[in-house]
């Protein structure tokens, strides 16, 4: 499935409002709507100029919303989300969302205290397990790897009630801005 309008995307993000997702990476019950807003808000605070990174934070979890009840692994869900948003939000946002699945496996390759992973980071499921050293080296060569790790760290941090993250409507203008830029670029193809 591909998303074709900001309206369609916002409807999808609104859908789980008030729902509890107990299958999240941390195992803690997280409202997917709040989680999306918190992830985006953390990135807006840490990277105020990077609207695409913030938007990637907002939409990074839609793989599960696109296919409710789906129990495929985090990496596959991230890829599904990346495909769905590419036409609307463009290549960089799409790649960041796809790579945040890989970033989880990358961070899992470093035991807590010995690498970039935050202490207490969830242990990935086995089919979705930590990267091998050669996979990690290949991941690091991707120019977007650093931003994808930033996205994943915000994703992990956004499971706690950390800040007032506002409401989805606050993001409409930014989503429209990123979508408009993409449609201009698309017209040049
Ligand atoms: Fe997440």
From TrEMBL:
Gene3D superfamilies: Hypothetical protein af1432 (1.10.3210.10). Residues 110-125 have a biased composition (Low complexity). InterPro entries: OP_Dioxygenase (IPR052567). One of its GO terms (molecular function) is hydrolase activity. Keywords: Hydrolase. Residues 110-134 are annotated as: Disordered. It comes from the Bacteria. PANTHER family: HD DOMAIN-CONTAINING PROTEIN, PTHR40202. This is Metal-dependent phosphohydrolase. It comes from Streptomyces nodosus.
């Amino acid at each position: 499935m591909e998303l074709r309008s900001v309206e369609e995307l916002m409807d999808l993000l609104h859908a789980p409002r008030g729902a509890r997702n107990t299958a999240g990476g941390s195992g803690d019950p997280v409202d997917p709507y709040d989680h999306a807003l918190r992830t985006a808000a953390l990135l807006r605070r840490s990277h105020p100029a990077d609207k695409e990174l913030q938007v990637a934070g907002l939409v990074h979890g839609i793989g599960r919303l696109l296919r409710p009840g789906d129990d495929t692994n985090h990496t596959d869900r991230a890829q599904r989300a990346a495909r769905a948003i590419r036409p609307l939000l463009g290549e960089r946002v799409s790649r960041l969302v796809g790579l945040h699945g890989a970033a989880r496996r990358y961070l899992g390759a470093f035991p807590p205290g010995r690498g970039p992973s935050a202490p207490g980071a969830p242990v990935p499921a086995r089919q979705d397990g930590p990267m091998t050293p050669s996979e990690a080296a290949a991941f690091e060569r991707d120019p977007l790897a650093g931003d994808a790790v930033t996205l994943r760290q915000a994703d992990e941090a956004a499971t706690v009630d950390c800040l007032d993250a506002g409401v989805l409507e606050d993001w409409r203008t930014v989503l429209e801005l990123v979508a408009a830029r993409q449609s201009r670029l698309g017209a040049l193809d």
